[in-house]
Fold each of these.
Amino acid sequence: MSGDKINLERMMHRLNQLALCSRGSRGITRLSFSRESECANRLVRDWMREAGMVVRMDPLGNVIGRYEGRRPGAPAFLIGSHLDSVIEGGKYDGALGVVAGIEIVQTLRERGLRPDLPIEVIAFCDEEGARFHTTLLGSRAMAGMLREEDLCARDSDGITLAEAMRSFGLDPSRYTDAVRDPQSVAGYLELHIEQGPVLEREDQACGAVSGIAGAARCRFRVEGRASHAGTVPMSLRRDALAGAAEIVLAVERIAGRMPSVVATVGQLRVFPGTSNVIPGAVEGTLDVRSMEDEQRQAALKEICEEAERISRRRGLSFTCRTVMEAAATPCSARLVQAVEEALAKRGLKPLRIPSGAGHDALAMASLTEVGMIFVRCRNGISHHPDEYVAPEDVGTGTAVLLDAVLELTAAETAEKFLNKAVKGANTP
Ligand code: HGY
Ligand code: MN
Ligand code: MN
């Protein structure tokens, strides 16, 4: 069996159907626990069933399809990605990995093939964190890293994650039931667009991911004093937005001095936010990443110290809270090798690319061995309506995924998993 047998036309049609599950008219906006995400979940559930999988939704809202293997009770090999998007993002980020996972199982089924290990395809509910700023929600829950306090995160309308989950028919108090037993899984492989320029520069459709950058996501608040915009002299103001603006420039300056670090203030909310009131408070998000954990931690420390200095000088207060932190994570040598063998099978170079972007694989690495396959995307553009992947690259990436999964779920390469008695795991 070779990866050439996938049905590319079906995949492109499904990617276009998923793209319709979006709010607004510019790019893709499909936030977690929204009408748009329910629309996507429904499609994915139907496709998983069509592919011969038994489908369930876990307590966090991850949609999981299972295709039994020939060895009953053997740990499952996991593939998948996320269904949520950023605001006005692209139609391939996350969705491509879910559609590709379903496609390879459907291809196996249509050819009457059953691997030794069972395969599970996972459509994670919230990787981006675009709504609650709590990224990797679904995968962190599965890996046992979600904390009760995460359920109290609020979106821009003040709705908590727990309330959003309840409105979706989920019981947030059962979040710990989403945790998987490490004994019940045999690895996780995610296909994802590169969201960067390397594959284009190397003129190659796809490559193996060597590791994923560590990240810290923070929320900060700058507090001053709201006052009349017409009567307070400039020298007597405690303008929270002017202070926040100086802090944003300090973030850019500090990260700019540290080659392996990137830092972004992606969101600023001004209070009370009317044109004739001096801003009394500003709330913002801070995203700091690096392949070097010490560099990331040093950058965050220096940013906060500089923000406090700026605030003191301006008679403001500055507070900052880390809402999510993940260490830089290497991919498993076993999975990288399987991907490189699959690349070589197609005459592709064994390219290894570090991922500056975060992925569910970052959280899943706390549960099991992880690997990723990157697919070329035009000009490296992502998190933007212009995100684009050529259909032939979708086909090549999915074929590489199928070949790698066939290798990783076969008895001779998975024997260390096959004779592992699955100790009461919650194998669904
Ligand atoms: O933010 C990221 O790196 C990913 O797209 N969630
Ligand atoms: Mn993504
Ligand atoms: Mn993304």
Amino acid sequence: MKEKLEHIKCLIIGSGPAGYTAAIYAARANMKPVLYKGIQPGGQLTTTTDVENFPGYPDGITGPEMMEQLKKQAERFDTDVRDGWVTKVDFSNKIHKIWINDELIISSETVIISTGATAKYLGLESEEKYLKLGGGVSACAVCDGFFYKNQEVVIVGAGDSACEEAHYLSKICSKVTMLVRKDHFRASKIMQKRVKETKNITILYNSITEEVIGDGNVVTGVKIKNILTNKIDIIKATGFFVAIGHKPNTEIFKDFLNLDETGYIINEKGSSKTNIEGVFVSGDAADKIYRQAITAAGTGCMAALDAERYLASL
Ligand code: NDP
């Protein structure tokens, strides 16, 4: 395979709020960033409908529209935004090597990783159908809970995220039914206690989702099965939340960067620095706690500023 080589100052990998914010700052600092959009251009926000919690949009904005505006803003300062995804990296030398689509090799003085994370779903056809329609399936209670004000919703999962999100939903929705597939939670004791003590949360153990039911446009209920008794039930709900974990998109970096046990990149506290000089991380690839567009954008800014200071120190 013939490989071309291109040398740049700053490579940004990923096109969610973290990547584009890093690009805006890096471009304005004259670092001439090149941004590769990756497999899901625009990131996780392109799978949501309305975004109402990003400051600066008093009337809300759709996820895809917001990402288009961020892209335009990055391009306004001459960020080179390209299609393509990173297939391999070599961070063993001071100048970092990056393969795009298995072909072009970029050598870059700084790399900002903004590859994000992917929410896990159950993999049911009906779940995918209503997710694509924007009709009531979501993997983010903080983003979408508000749309179910005073309504009944179902949430799947038994970890800390599911407990945190169920508790969040309980303050907005009239009733939250939590489906736990085993006879116990995985979440920490304190999080379990919180959901168990919340009046409008009903916990159904040994319960799995058979089907997300709807009218062809929006969710109207969830068909569940008790795996001990095989009893089938239908729960009325307008929202179906999935909180069964996220997978950070960090696989290609594992030979060089320090990752935690679930694959999140470990950054230096209070900065975007990784264990490799000149390689910085922003957004959900290093964040399993907050996972919001605004926090991703904030860390994107940090990564660009850290990269700029690193270049200045060389
Ligand atoms: P976890 O991997 O901890 O939990 C995933 C949960 O989803 C498990 O209970 C699992 O069930 C369940 N699950 C997985 N697949 C399915 C399925 N197909 N059907 C039904 N249930 C399923 O993910 P979290 O996102 O909750 O947490 C990730 C990490 O982030 C953890 O380390 C957590 O502690 C941390 N975190 C911390 C927070 C905080 O400190 N405030 C907030 C949120 C997360 P099972 O138990 O049966 O395997």
